[in-house]
From TrEMBL:
GO CC terms of this entry: cytosol
Gene designation: rbfA
Its job: One of several proteins that assist in the late maturation steps of the functional core of the 30S ribosomal subunit. Associates with free 30S ribosomal subunits (but not with 30S subunits that are part of 70S ribosomes or polysomes). Required for efficient processing of 16S rRNA. May interact with the 5'-terminal helix region of 16S rRNA.
Pfam families in the cross-refs: RBFA
Species assigned in the record: Hymenobacter daecheongensis DSM 21074
Keyword Cytoplasm tagged: yes
Name of the protein this chain belongs to: Ribosome-binding factor A
């Protein structure tokens, strides 16, 4: 579980990295820049694990390779933005967020299942003919 400090720092990094991708280094990303889905910070605030979403940016593997190749320039541009707010500029480790592909896969799997629906007039179980009758406790009880 992350502390409040880690959560605040992760939020700061997420906002500023998005600004770096869109405003400071748009030339690194042909087309649309990657989206940042999640940022996780180590307890000492020295390492940031950044999960990139490639929904609109195209190929996920190519995008990840591009970001990893330019991670030094990305970290430098991030340092320019946040150097007065933090003591240590964290190491940036990038990962591809595949939760959207996983959700699409699970949707496809659930779409192929055939689950028969019960009709309201049909009983769930066939009743036995010689089942014992339940005694009436009240006079106005209907069966």
């Amino acid at each position: 579980m992350e502390s409040k400090r880690q959560q605040k720092f992760a939020s700061l990094l997420q906002q500023d990295l998005a600004a770096v991708f869109q405003r400071d280094l748009p030339h690194l990303f042909p087309g649309l820049p990657p989206g940042i889905s999640t940022v996780r910070i180590s307890p000492d605030l020295g390492v940031a694990r950044i999960y990139l979403s490639a929904l609109l940016a195209g190929s996920g593997e190519g995008l990840l390779a591009n970001v990893q190749d330019n991670s030094k320039a990305i970290r430098h541009a991030l340092a320019k933005r946040i150097h007065k707010q933090v003591r240590i500029i964290p190491e940036l480790v990038f990962f591809l967020d595949d939760s959207a592909q996983y959700a699409a896969h699970m949707d496809a799997v659930l779409g192929t299942l055939h689950i028969p629906a019960e009709t309201p007039d049909a009983p769930a179980e066939p009743e036995a003919q010689d089942a014992p009758q339940r005694p009436k406790l009240f006079a106005d009880e209907d069966e």
